[in-house]
Structure formats: C-alpha cells, structure tokens
Amino acid sequence: MYLQLETAYADETTKLKPPHRFVPWLLVNNQPLQEDYQNFIEYVCKAYKGRNKPQACKTKALEINKISAQDTNPRVCFR
After folding, report:
1. Which end of the chain, C or N, has fewer beta carbons within 10 A?
2. Does some domain include residue 53?
3. CA–CA separation, 72 vs 70, rounded Å?
4. pLDDT tens profile 25-37
5. SS3 23
6. What is the mean pLDDT of residues 57-61?
7. Any residues with CB less than 8 A from the CB of 75 and at least 6 apart, and which?
8. Residue 41 — very low, low, confident or very high, per pLDDT cuts 50/70/90?
9. Domain that includes residue 33, residue range
10. Is residue 31 part of a domain?
11. pLDDT at 71
12. Close Cβ partners of 21 (under 8 Å, ≥ 6 residues apart)
C-alpha cells in the first residue's frame, strides 16, 4: 500500500508544469509559489472561497513578503 501511494505521488511530481526545481515546491490552485513559498498562508487565504475562513486567515497579519535578491539563505533545497 505504501509503495503504491509513493509511486502515485512520484508520478504527480514528474507531471508538474512547470517542473519543480527545489523542495519545498508548493502549489495553490495549480500555480507554483516558486521561491515565495514562505507566504503560503497568504496565498491559501486569498484563494479560499468557503464561508468559514480558517483560523490562520483570521489571526495572522497577512502580508506577502518578497524574498530579496540579496537573500543569501533562501531556505530551499535544489535537486
């Protein structure tokens, strides 16, 4: 069972467009966040269309923080 699940996720990963370049590689509404993965909650809250907003969208001061080109520690792992 575990092997089937792992294989299914591996197949999904190889079909990503654009292909993933590093880990973590996050998608919101099938759009990759690229290097802006640190703002994941912001993107999810903006994309959420349900009635009851998740608590994280209510309590966190949401603001997209762009990663600076001078950031020497982008916190990602490239393949």
Report:
1. N
2. yes
3. 6
4. 888 888 898 888 7
5. strand
6. 70
7. 38
8. confident
9. 2-69
10. yes
11. 56
12. 78, 79
- Name residue 75's amino acid: R
SS3 14: helix
Q: Is the pTM of this model over 0.90?
A: no
Strands 27-28 and 31-32: antiparallel
Amino acid at 61: A
Number of domains in the chain: 1
Mean pLDDT of 65-73: 53
With beta carbons less than 8 A apart as the criterion, state whether 75 and 22 touch. Answer: no
55 HSE (CA, 13 A, CB side): 0
Question: Is residue 12 within a helix (H) or strand (E), and if so which, with residue range?
Answer: helix 2-14
Percent share of the chain, pLDDT over 90: 16
CB under 8 Å, gap of 24 or more: what pairs does 61-64 form? Answer: 64/36, 64/39
